[in-house]
Specification:
By secondary structure, the protein is of the alpha/beta class. Helix content is 48%, strand content 15%. The chain is built from 11 helices and 10 strands. It has a 6-stranded mixed sheet with strand order 1-2-3-5-7-10, sandwiched between helices. Strand 1 and strand 2 form a beta hairpin. Helix 1 packs parallel to helix 2 and helix 4 packs across helix 5. The model has no long low-confidence stretch (mean pLDDT 89). Ligand T3D binds next to strand 6.
């Protein structure tokens, strides 16, 4: 009998695979799936041996976004719950961006609505050649959510972002790669092996540095070049002895230290540290 859990978790050496598992509904999000995914992500974050994460879907789809059946009332009208964004989708996107290790989306089939944008929230998106990305929102009278209006213009530029969001036309994986929406496509039968290979690569990489790179790239959107240069300098200076050991590893051709931080320092943390240092120097 197929496993009925809405989310499956596979523990591999140094990384985890999370599979959205409602294949009959093309892995559409219902409440149970949101809750299970939230638990799975927290457990991965708390596991200090977890240095990468793969997110994929069971069956022929990656994810078709919100389960629309949960939103159809007795009289057949569709209702939209803004509270679902507050409670589930927005925290999910924030969590994916903030995890202190790389998150690889293995988009095995169609990714529609919030399903498409959750894939785009991952650090690297691999897709099967047959996969498609659909900003399905406008077709049902919604605006793109789960970060769509932020990711799309940044990844593909304003003209293509508008085209995708306003028409809801499916974008093939091949075009998504050519447009820079995703990292790489692979032949359907090779996708999962390639996604595992990438995760294994990350388990052998200096995870602290990767986490800091994630943070620097995200923060760059709010900075001018001067501010970003300062941030790079401060980040390079952060007392991560593990990073320094990385230099020695390159010289002696040994693998870099791969320990990972429990949590990344945020801009707010840095301001706080700066305030404390200023108080000490008074
Ligand atoms: O209220 C809030 O929470 C606000 C938040 C909103 C976030 C969102 O994600 S809004 C966008 C919701 N998603 C969509 O609008 C996409 C709807 N689905 C589709 O457009 C198409 O299904 C696909 C393009 C994804 C795939 O098309 P196709 O032809 O390959 O498959 P299909 O035949 O349409 O679907 C197969 C089955 O999956 C079918 O069920 P059945 O007839 O075999 O029993 C279909 O109903 C089901 N399914 C597909 N998408 C959803 C779904 N069931 C529930 N919810 C879905 N989103």
């Amino acid at each position: 009998m197929a496993d009925e859990s809405p989310v499956l978790v596979e523990r591999c050496a140094g990384y985890r695979v999370i599979t959205l598992n409602r294949p009959k509904q093309l892995n559409a999000f219902n409440e149970a799936m949101h809750q299970a995914l939230r638990r799975a992500l927290s457990e991965a974050e708390e596991d200090s041996d977890c240095r990468a994460l793969m997110l994929t879907g069971a069956g022929r789809a990656f994810c078709s976004g919100q389960d629309l059946r949960e939103r159809i009332s007795a009289d057949g009208k569709t209702t939209v719950l803004g509270s679902a964004l507050e409670t589930y989708y927005n925290p999910l996107v924030r969590k994916l961006r903030a995890l202190p290790f790389p998150v690889v989306a293995a988009v095995n089939g169609v990714a529609a609505g919030a399903g498409a944008n959750i894939a785009l929230a991952c650090d690297l998106v691999l897709a099967a050649r047959s996969a498609t990305f659909v900003q399905a929102f406008a077709k049902i009278g919604l605006v793109p959510d789960s970060g769509g209006t932020w990711f799309l213009p940044r990844l593909v530029g304003p003209a293509r972002a508008r085209g995708l969001a306003l028409t809801g036309e499916p974008l093939s994986a091949e075009k998504a790669e050519a447009w820079g929406l995703i990292w790489k496509i692979h032949e359907d039968l090779e996708l999962m092996a390639e996604a595992h290979r990438l995760c294994v690569h990350f388990t052998e990489a200096p995870t602290v540095a990767l986490a800091l790179i994630k943070r620097l790239l995200d923060e760059s959107w709010a900075n001018d070049l001067d501010a970003q240069l300062d941030l790079e300098r401060e980040t390079q200076r952060e007392p991560h002895s593990r990073l320094r050991r990385g230099h020695a590893c390159v010289l002696c051709k040994a693998p870099a230290d791969v320990q990972r931080p429990q949590r990344l320092m945020t801009a707010a943390d840095r301001n706080q540290t700066g305030r404390q240092a200023r108080r000490r120097s008074l």
